[in-house]
Amino acid sequence: MSSKQILILDANQIQQKINRIAYQILEDNFDEEEIILAGVISRGYRLALRIEAVLSKISDIKIKIVKLELNKSSSKLESSIDIPVEQCENKVVILVDDVLNSGRTIAYGLGVFLNIRLKKLRSVVLVDRSHKNFPVATDFVGLELSTVLKEHVSVVLDENNEEDAVYLR
Question: What is the pLDDT of residues 32-42, one digit of tens each?
Answer without folding.
Answer: 999 999 999 98
